Amino acid sequence: MSTYIPPLEDMQFVIEQVLDAPASWREQPAFAELDADTAREVLAQAGRFAAEVLAPINGPGDRQGCRWSPQGVKTPDGYPQAWRQFVEGGWPALACDPEVGGQGLPNLLNAALFEMLCAANHGWTMYPGLLHGASEAIQATAVGELRERYLPKVVSGEWLATMNLTEPAAGSDLGLIRSRAEPLEPRADGIIANGDRMAISGHKIFISGGDQDMTDNIVHLVLARLPDAPGGTKGLSLFLVPKFLPDGRRNAVFCDGIEHKMGIHGSATSQMRFERAEGWLLGEPHAGLAAMFLMMNAARLHVAMQGLGHLDAATQKALRYARERVQLRAPRRPADAPAAGGPDLIEWHPAMRRILLSLQAQTEGARVLAYWIGVLLDESHQHPDEARRRRAADLVALLTPVAKAFLTDLGHRGADEALGVFGGYGYVHEYGVEQHVRDSRIAMIYEGTNEIQAIDLVMRKLLDSPRRSDALLAELEAEAAACTAEGLTLEAQALTGQVAALRAALAALQAARAADPEAPLRVADDVLHGLGHTLLAWAWARSSRCAPRHPDPARATRKREVARFGLQWLLPAAQWRWQRVQDWAVLPLPWVRP
Amino acid sequence: MSTYIPPLEDMQFVIEQVLDAPASWREQPAFAELDADTAREVLAQAGRFAAEVLAPINGPGDRQGCRWSPQGVKTPDGYPQAWRQFVEGGWPALACDPEVGGQGLPNLLNAALFEMLCAANHGWTMYPGLLHGASEAIQATAVGELRERYLPKVVSGEWLATMNLTEPAAGSDLGLIRSRAEPLEPRADGIIANGDRMAISGHKIFISGGDQDMTDNIVHLVLARLPDAPGGTKGLSLFLVPKFLPDGRRNAVFCDGIEHKMGIHGSATSQMRFERAEGWLLGEPHAGLAAMFLMMNAARLHVAMQGLGHLDAATQKALRYARERVQLRAPRRPADAPAAGGPDLIEWHPAMRRILLSLQAQTEGARVLAYWIGVLLDESHQHPDEARRRRAADLVALLTPVAKAFLTDLGHRGADEALGVFGGYGYVHEYGVEQHVRDSRIAMIYEGTNEIQAIDLVMRKLLDSPRRSDALLAELEAEAAACTAEGLTLEAQALTGQVAALRAALAALQAARAADPEAPLRVADDVLHGLGHTLLAWAWARSSRCAPRHPDPARATRKREVARFGLQWLLPAAQWRWQRVQDWAVLPLPWVRP
Q1: Of chain B's two ends, which shows fewer C-beta atoms within 10 Å, N or C?
Q2: Do residues A210 and A162 lie in contact, with contact meaning Cβ atoms separated by under 8 Å?
Q3: What percent of chain B has pLDDT over 70?
């Protein structure tokens, strides 16, 4: 029932035909030896792991859940074995720097890997979810022996890592963090330096993989305050605190319990207690937030892939069910359908067709958008041309909060719509679709809630400087021109309309902010969803334009049909969002009263 | 954490000031002795039961769930005791006919009762959920000894009843039902009559309360086919099959298992097997569907109340949390707030204000709509004036599918938005809000999926005859005129706009259907949601107009403010829906391909 089929052909179409990532790789020395065939083989192997190892333990892991005792957390049956296979396959190091033991493949392929892992088993995928970001943070900050001891094991996945930010009173507001660190070998001059040994104390909550039985050691990255640190986020430092110390002693890091949650039951969401636990300062004092944000940015694209994974997996399930289940007569049947007899396939009923086509169009558009960010992320780091690096970095900065929030929103709402296709069967565990609804909800919350992403987008990415939105507008206009050149009027007009709407919205936001600083915050959610739709329009237009390059003519026709469905049936939602930005930016918002 | 506060003051405002139900009661002899004070007292007692008895066992019942064994189903701790209290309080018979032992109170009060029961504990409320409909079906069909034996016990709630429709292959399509019945004492002339004793065989699934340990006996109402019955829905007959026969023998009705579901874990969703079980024909042969629809119509309003209950309960929780949790500085603070210090209440942040005000406005509007249907339902049965009965019946027929689908949609999506207010805490069981998300999802599916409701609305309620929509348009125009008369321009204009949009949509639907019979089905979902928004607009306009009648001036101001928020911030969504009806009715919808 919970079969997952890796969408390799769809992925290849996006990577090779729509985005032409191989052309980008050829320009970047780091990926000069990578070609489309190698990338295909990597994804095929990743798909086999997701489908054959992870998918079968997804439903059972949900039902069994993690079990806590004072001795530690036991993950669901099969989780530790799957982890060993993952490490032996070299998957944790896929996109890591070869200098520190990574395979040096593009972030794009890592993103595609995580789409499949999450589609197959979100709970299990929480464990490696932060690993890449953690290795980047350690690589950027750790020095000397500390670096040598921890970096290779985190890169390889021999040890898993965690990210300890949240405290009971400090969620979105990290400035409220109270955990403390004090030097274990204080210097006479009071100076504290990178790598100093520390005693860390405090309580952290919602720590994914805070304890588990999958790796011999766990490397906790912890935000806490040094003595005399300033208040707020400027007083936070980052520390590395292992579960087991180098001499084999158990460190004073305790998992006091795990949360009982709506979903991702296979992930141990831990309550952590640090009781003068031994650790080391990572990077400079009071520079912890910046180091942690190295992880957060990688994590946000990763979370966007979770949204896409759920959307695709739930869509697959709904499509298969609708192709098997018969119920009532449809008002019309496809020309190639067998002669009418009893009840018809539910995929022929208009209400179901609308839902299924919407899910398909959203999945295909979302994949183009997400993979584009992957391509840009690689270019921002590796492209030899500085102007290209800068353009790519601008676009990544602009697109990441949109992808995080909009794709997780699509993933959750899409899974919920897919559930509806099953009728009553959708509500029971057996068919696997309701688990996607439950599991996907968390992605809208963690790594910065979707409301926080919208504020980041509007306040820091759009209003602060026009450079980023100019880069995006140029890309949208270029795609519209390319569509026009190929006679794709529908596509070109849709994009031109979005360019005008986006420009008008940005002008309205600037004007409204001048009159009332609160105005952009009132409509941030609409800006984010409007822009998400604009980006889907770009993705659909580009898919439609590139569809003839698909090696299979029938699939080429279908790709254009689905893309045009998106432009005609789904894009009008953007108009409503953009209108709200115009109208609401000047509409006072009352206070809440009980 | 999972406190539920019965919204008695809000209910009274709707019943007494907005709808002036007491005036309607005075016109109906059946309710001539009922006054507002009595109704208040009934609701206050009902609220105490919901808050003090049901709410405390809601979360624990979700975690414990029902447990199945071949000996039968065990419901969660406290469920049977709560049932006994409910029966002793006379609640099952609240709106039943006094002639058969009921209290004869209006359906309106029964609807309000079930809003509170479901808000407090949806899982438990599944057991009495069908009781009222079952007693109506038995009252309408059963004769003689059968009636005397079963009707009083079902009315009083001493025995619970179930509704056995769905089979593995027959969900939305009841014409595919295969269960069989054959006479145990066949007559020589082959005639089969109401009340005949039968042997019933077949498999039924998704039977709520198919087995339980709350009542000594269970009265199953079962759809099955008599020998030589025609195929499809015209060959279905209704049978009464008790778990225990009058002589005390255990009947051959078996619960083979219960479903493991996304939510309502306290409700035993049973797989039933009838092995030549003894039962009796209820009503005429092959007239089972009509009798069952007596239950279905009552059940659909009941399900709408579940949507409202979840919406209100989740909104309450989010409002309380947002009033206690501090996080980050808000861009602006209320004039009466204490001097700025550390982080601000999250209810002051614009993104949260938008969500919380939307939830409040939707809750208040949805309650006016739902209770209006309650008033109309009573008038359709009891009003002495035939024209009033007929108008009320027309409106009930039109509004019921909208309320079922739109309010359950609002309930589920609203609970999901409320969850977001809690951030990570929303995702854990402890705060109780994620349970509303899980529990509320089923209400969009059962008693006719929301897609089926949309088809019913468009094909049978709107397009078949203009009488029903004319009655609604007249009501909308009357309310707009009343608002204009009181100088409420915003309200009047919003309603006038909706009247025009609804008229245009109906014309577009008629024209599109003439060209393409499939057209109305493509946009049925948008018609339903468009009409749902129109009805909320009516509810907000009326609430705003009636607000000055609120006994508390501060609440009066607030009622108008929330209603106007709905009209200004939420109603624009209707425009988008109505536009889709216009555009999409003429847009061909592709076929689904894998």
Answers
A1: C
A2: yes
A3: 99
